[in-house]
Amino acid sequence: MHIFTVRTLTQAVKDVLEGEFPFVWVRGQISNLSKPPSGHVYFSLKDEEAILNVVWFKGAQPKAGKDEGECVNPLTGEVGEAFQLSDGLEVLVAGRMNVYPPRGAYQLVAELVQGQGQGELAIAFEAMKAKLQAKGYFDQDRKMALPRNPRRVAVVTAPQGAALQDFLRIAADRGFGATVRIYPSLVQGESAPAQIAAALDRADMDGWAEIVVLIRGGGSLEDLWAFNTEPVAEAISRARMPVLTGVGHEVDTTIADLVADQRAATPSHAAQILWTERGVLRQQADEMLMALTRGMDRYLAGQGACLTAQAQALFWSSPIRHLERAGFELERLGDRLRQSARNRVENRALDLARLDERLHKSFGPARIMVSKAELGRFSTALELAGVAFVRDREDLLRGLQGRLAALDPGAPLARGYALVRNEAGRFVRVCSDVRPGEGIRVYVSDGEFGAEVTS
Questions:
Q1: How do beta strands 243-247 and 211-216 pair?
Q2: What is residue 3's predicted lDDT score, i.e. its pLDDT?
Q3: Residue 225: φ, ψ to 5°
Q4: CA-wise closest residue to 186 among 161, 206, 166
């Protein structure tokens, strides 16, 4: 059984809740409205069956405009009439779910608070979202991957809009240099959905671009409504090339974003998704060049080591080297033979000297005379044995020299023999190694010449 601490359990609930509801729209009635000196606004949203705590931080609230009664939305930059909250007011709140650990309570952190009129659009948005989701327009398996650093990009937007300028400004400093073709369209108003859909279809039918980008700057829910319509969603869905959307600000999620193959938070972010910074590309190129250089160095070092090993193996297995080793071995055996003969004679002479000394000490003059006679015989026999031994070794040496001479590849050629190679370069040993009409090379003692087999 796992036992949680209060902190770990609260953090687990926080992670699950905030992960499941990163951005939501909630409709309800304001109650318990509080506006402390900090500028933050606290209230509850309630309906007949439930209540939800809401915090609207000062930084997310509209700022006062230039004219009296106007306000500027900090998220969208939209200028509109000042909106006053009060208990009992029906509102639509957009924001993210949050868990506040010190109190162990969950709450909604508001990003936008709009009157009930906006709520009707939100209901229409949810209805369209459910309809298109049922058709499979949002399915991940139908979405296409975006090309990396595309060279040809079609952009559907208003040509005079700031969104296009932001997009082009970012694109100018990224990627390998791309051509951008503008497909103009209204992006707001009653005619916008049909024009956006037609522009998407034209870009797709032209087949010139690698990707279509649909962009528009920020605005209210009504301003962005063209991107929540079915004609635009269907045009994106039937496109044969990838579609990237960059509509509004990060908090603005439209139907077009959900149908597109990928959504960017803003028009500028769309350019950042499409193209890599040139500094990063230069660094990647340098890294690849260094990796290629290191790989080539390793390859050349390996090939050099292999070549050295093969040259050494060829040197040790060559016929010349074999003859040299045989000559060295013969010379070594000859030296040992001569040394052995000298040692044997010297040892016999030493033995003879010791025996002579013992003989003089052990016998008288008569015995000495007899011994001298025997000594003479032994000396003669020893001399003959030494001569015979030396001749034996000389005969052995001459036999080894004869065998060495027989191993000489050129000796048979000097005696009138010849070596023959067929067209494949192999030595001819039997008649079946050649065929009539085949060219052969004949090697004799003083050179070589060509010949042709006649039969």
A1: parallel
A2: 86
A3: -65, -25
A4: 161
Largest CA distance in the chain: 163
Domain range for 420 is 413-452
Q: What is the pLDDT of residues 279-303, one digit of tens each?
A: 776 777 778 888 888 888 898 888 8
CA distances to 281, 407, 437 from 420, in Å:
64, 18, 15
Instruction: Give the number of other CB atoms < 10 A from CB of residue 264.
Output: 23
Q: Do the bridges between strand 105-115 and strand 51-56 make them parallel or antiparallel, or are there none, so unpaired? A: parallel
CA distances (Å), origin 448, targets 302, 319, 422 = 39, 19, 13
pTM for this one?
0.45
Cα-flanking dihedrals φ and ψ of residue 246, to 5°?
Answer: -140, 80
pLDDT at 447: 86
Same domain membership, residue 369 and residue 351: yes
Q: What is the DSSP string of 341-374?
A: HHHHHHHHHHHHHHHHHHHHHH--HHHHHHHHHH
* Residue 212 and residue 185 in contact, taking contact as beta carbons nearer than 8 Å: no
Same domain, 393 and 433: no
Are the beta carbons of 245 and 254 closer than 8 angstroms? Answer: yes
**338 and 356, same domain (yes or no):** yes
Q: Are residues 248 and 126 in the same domain?
A: no
From residue 112, alpha-carbon distances to 12, 65, 66, 93, 120 in Å are: 27, 17, 21, 6, 15
Residue type for 404, please?
L
